[in-house]
Specification:
The chain is mostly helical. 53% of the residues lie in helices and 0% in strands. α2 runs antiparallel to α3 and α7 crosses α9.
């Protein structure tokens, strides 16, 4: 039917307008009044908050991460594995390239809020390692030193492990090991004294614990134990023959 408008080629605000019959030139947009492109479609604009950014404008690059934020994340990852001393966290931060100034600021703040507490760490370490693995004060002192615990703090924590407790633990270790240890009384004696020495027990404590345990084992072991002069061996600092262990 003449005079009827042609169908639109698209939908929405960018649909191409229909051509006018009997006229020359390009039709006008009923909405914007602008000129159509040669393809018959009207130019589009970038969609943005204000609709005024050019289409090829690149987004603003994000700012580099704050060094203190990185330091906090490193510390929290370390603490998620197990409690750490201040020295251990400082070492971890240095390995990740955190400056000493920023590390000190972050660690000082963790000290203030109690996230870092070397005294509490030392007490927990001594209790756990002594009860769990039967380690004596000498080995525990070395472990605390390796983790950067101050000497005074370590001494205070180790003071909670008295000589009586240490001797009782040594005897418990010997009794447990004696159930599965075979051999002559002399070989068993050397093996068990060596075991206690590696756990840090002084010679006197180790020798007495093994002597008393052997005395209660059987007649042969008791006879051998009766010949052991624990005080003399302890004073001499006699070390067990490692080849026999």
């Amino acid at each position: 039917m003449a005079g009827r408008r042609g169908a639109r080629t698209g939908r929405g605000w960018d649909a191409a307008p229909s051509a006018r019959t009997g006229g020359s030139g390009t039709g006008r947009s009923r909405r914007s009044g602008g000129s159509a492109t040669p393809s018959g479609r009207w130019p589009t604009r970038a969609v943005g908050p204000d609709n005024d950014a050019p289409p090829d404008e690149s987004p603003t690059p994000s700012a580099p991460r704050d060094e203190a934020e990185r330091a906090r994340e490193i510390c929290l990852r370390q603490l998620a594995v197990r409690p750490r001393t201040r020295a251990e966290l400082a070492t971890a931060l240095a390995r990740q390239g955190i400056s000493e100034e920023v590390a000190a600021q972050v660690l000082d703040r963790y000290d203030e809020v109690g996230i870092i507490d070397d005294a509490a760490f030392a007490r927990a370490w001594v209790s756990s390692r002594h009860q769990g693995r039967g380690l004596a004060r000498r080995v525990l002192a070395n472990e605390l030193r390796q983790r950067g615990v101050d000497a005074d703090i370590a001494t205070e924590a180790l003071g909670e492990l008295d000589e009586t407790t240490e001797a009782e633990t040594a005897r418990q270790l010997v009794d447990r090991k004696l159930r599965t240890t075979t051999g002559s009384p002399e070989a068993v004696f050397r093996r068990l004294v060596g075991m206690l020495a590696r756990k840090g027990y002084p010679p006197g404590v180790a020798i007495r614990a093994v002597k008393d345990a052997l005395a209660e084992r059987d007649a042969e072991a008791a006879e051998f134990a009766d010949q052991i002069d624990a005080d003399a061996l302890a004073e001499a600092g006699t070390e067990p023959d490692r080849d026999a262990l």
